[in-house]
Amino acid sequence: MAIKAIIIDDERLARNELKKLLQDHSDIEIIEEAANVDDGVEKIENLNPDLIFLDIQMPGKTGFDLLAELEKAPRVIFTTAYDEYAIKAFEVNALDYLLKPIEPKRLADAIQKLQVEIFKETAGVSGLNRGPLTEIDQVFVKDGERCWFVKLGEIRLFESVGNYAKVFFGTHKPLILKSLNALEERLDDRMFFRANRKHIINLRWIEKIEPYFNGGLLVDLKGGEKIEVSRRQTVKFKEMMSL
């Protein structure tokens, strides 16, 4: 099965060089290329590639800006001439990071890593582009200078902050520019539950449930947060959890 890839780089020569190197890797199919972030975002959302080769420094917006605009992040291999970005790229947990000019051996290593990732995940759930986002889909979260790729299964809680949502994973709580209503529409409702006006919880992170006043419930999450399930949502919650 071919791995569909898009190259996003503002330099035509760099795109051509990478395409030439990828001729030795018949399992990677370059379906499109883009020279800037806006074009890249549009092509990713229309074509749903398995992988993007992404330059970091581009005129106007960076590769990190591109990732922040996507609803769900594909697998990413960064390609850049700027090694000071290496630490940042690994902090966002990118698949790999190739320094220009790209060496064939490093490219081969990155593609092998990609194949291992894909093999591990095909054993799990496969998410279709327009269906609900599954637990293995990853979202890109940017908070100031720090960036992460987070699998949805690792997120225990979304909390509404105006037009933003605070994302709780590990010890982090960065904000993303998405409303809770927009998130609720795209999240898999077998896994994520709208507990009240302000919170969506990941059902798999629930540690304890107890009755709360007004006929509601109080849920303890494994991260230590206590979230109230409103009286209106309690009936639905009990049905879902077979309580």
UniProtKB/TrEMBL annotation:
<keyword id="KW-0597">Phosphoprotein</keyword>
<dbReference type="InterPro" id="IPR007492">
    <property type="entry name" value="LytTR_DNA-bd_dom"/>
</dbReference>
<dbReference type="Pfam" id="PF00072">
    <property type="entry name" value="Response_reg"/>
</dbReference>
<dbReference type="Pfam" id="PF04397">
    <property type="entry name" value="LytTR"/>
</dbReference>
<dbReference type="GO" id="GO:0003677">
    <property type="term" value="F:DNA binding"/>
</dbReference>
<dbReference type="InterPro" id="IPR001789">
    <property type="entry name" value="Sig_transdc_resp-reg_receiver"/>
</dbReference>
<dbReference type="InterPro" id="IPR011006">
    <property type="entry name" value="CheY-like_superfamily"/>
</dbReference>
<dbReference type="InterPro" id="IPR046947">
    <property type="entry name" value="LytR-like"/>
</dbReference>
<dbReference type="GO" id="GO:0000156">
    <property type="term" value="F:phosphorelay response regulator activity"/>
</dbReference>
<feature type="domain" description="HTH LytTR-type">
    <location>
        <begin position="141"/>
        <end position="243"/>
    </location>
</feature>
<feature type="domain" description="Response regulatory">
    <location>
        <begin position="4"/>
        <end position="115"/>
    </location>
</feature>
<feature type="modified residue" description="4-aspartylphosphate">
    <location>
        <position position="55"/>
    </location>
</feature>
<protein>
    <submittedName>
        <fullName>Two component transcriptional regulator, LytTR family</fullName>
    </submittedName>
</protein>
